[in-house]
Fold this protein.
Amino acid sequence: MYKAVAIAAFATSFIAFASTTNDSEHLNKLLADAKTEAAGLQQDASELESYTRSTMAWQSHAAKLNDMKEHVNKAGQLVQELNNGKDQGSTWQQTAINRITPALREMADNLEATINSLNKNQGHVNLSTYKNYALANSELATDLSQIVGDFVTYGHAKSKFEKLGERLEVTER
């Protein structure tokens, strides 16, 4: 009887441990790539916002907006790939995708509004509407970068924890 209980407990703990290690390496790579794009977007958005407090020509604003658009488009492609593979990911990876997707969508919508504002106002960058869009871009890009970065950091920490657990032959319930 004792052996049966011990075997059942071992099997249960092994299954519990095995279920925590089903992270998709492909999704981890895509998340890491998204982190890189989000960091670049954050840098560009911060620079654009700083342009609104200077005498930079509208062409400089337009060029920075184009840089941001490239980051958003690349991140959008990565998020599409993430969503395509979401069913293969672990719970935390699915949660990451579910949180990153709307954040990127909001960023893209605000960026489009910023570009439209610049075009509509014939390059006038000193209007409060344009400045507000630029500030919102900076804040949204910072939020997006933080979200993606936090999930990537979580994934690394989780992986280290699991490897340490394997090495120590410890299982979590």
